[in-house]
Design a protein that fits this description.
- α5 packs antiparallel against α8.
- 35% of the residues lie in helices and 25% in strands.
- The protein has a five-stranded antiparallel sheet. It has a four-stranded antiparallel sheet with strand order 11-12-13-14. Strands 1-3-2 form a three-stranded parallel sheet, with helices on one face.
- By secondary structure, it is of the alpha+beta class.
Length: 272
């Protein structure tokens, strides 16, 4: 299908982009890599009056290393995340997950900020970001603010970003003992279910994709984990969840996958 007609603007700075968003009164969408937004527009599931293409804003790219965390510019591509020695060494779960997003074209165009802002409930990076307990920096007409991972994802394809805000950067703690495991029918498909685990001593943060309208923490499994009981803790991965059924899988099968994948993710993280 052909998308609805729209205006196209190319800001040269974040301030320009914010001004353009304000000018269109909430009817504009930010374009980064485009691999999530453009297919929705072609299907007319999204019909913005304008696209604000932020791809030319150099300040939104780059990776910064600090002793305890890593800051990644929102326009940093999946391929750049996957190939960064800083991320590979400091936060392997993020590098490995980015390396498995889509195909080579998607990884070279798609961005970490775009993936989080799109908030697809079957996306890999939102669940990993939630398990890492990271945060994003957003900027709007009233300045910058920090949004915790636990507050970012609101509902299906919805975040707490305002319509006149730009996601500037993603910050994650270093997490050497971490892993993400997913199940999909083909290598380039969305995950039917995915599980991310970050282990710190006798505790773990665990997040799931594909079991709700947003990525969610597997809080019952986290509470049951003692540092060495991956299988027992994983048995609680679906507690309190009501996974949806669709043409890809039933809710019962998704609950089963959650338990299996959480065990695998915990074991891989513990071995790391």
């Amino acid at each position: 299908m052909i998308p609805h007609a729209f205006d196209y603007e190319q800001p040269t700075s974040v301030a320009d982009a914010i001004s353009m968003l304000g000018k269109h009164g909430g009817e504009a969408r930010v374009l980064a890599g485009g691999h999530s937004l453009l297919p929705l527009m072609k299907l007319r599931l999204a019909a913005p009056d304008a696209l604000i293409d932020i791809g030319g804003i150099a300040s939104l790219r780059g990776i910064t290393d600090t002793p305890d965390s890593i800051t990644i510019g929102a326009l940093t591509t999946h391929a750049q995340v996957a190939g960064s020695h800083v991320i590979v060494n400091g936060c392997p779960i993020l590098a490995e997950t980015a390396a498995g997003v889509g195909d080579m074209q998607v990884r070279n165009r798609g961005t970490i900020g775009g993936s989080l802002a799109n908030a697809d409930p079957h996306g890999d990076l939102p669940a990993v970001f939630l398990a890492l307990d990271g945060e994003v920096t957003a900027e709007g007409p009233n300045g910058q603010r920090t949004i915790a991972a636990s507050d970012l994802f609101v509902d299906y394809l919805q975040t707490s970003l305002s319509q006149d805000e730009i996601l500037r950067a993603v910050r994650v703690p270093k997490a050497p003992k971490s892993a993400y495991v997913k199940f999909n029918r083909r290598a380039q498909d969305w995950a039917i279910v995915g599980a991310a685990a970050v282990v710190e001593g006798s505790s773990a943060r665990i997040a799931l994709t594909g079991v709700a309208s947003t990525p969610v923490r597997a809080t019952a499994a986290e509470a049951a984990f003692t540092g060495s009981n991956a299988a027992d803790a994983a048995g609680h991965a679906a507690d309190g969840l009501d996974p949806p059924s669709d043409t890809a899988a039933s809710g019962e099968y998704r609950a089963h996958l959650a338990r299996v994948l959480v065990r695998r993710a915990l074991e891989a993280a513990m071995a790391g």
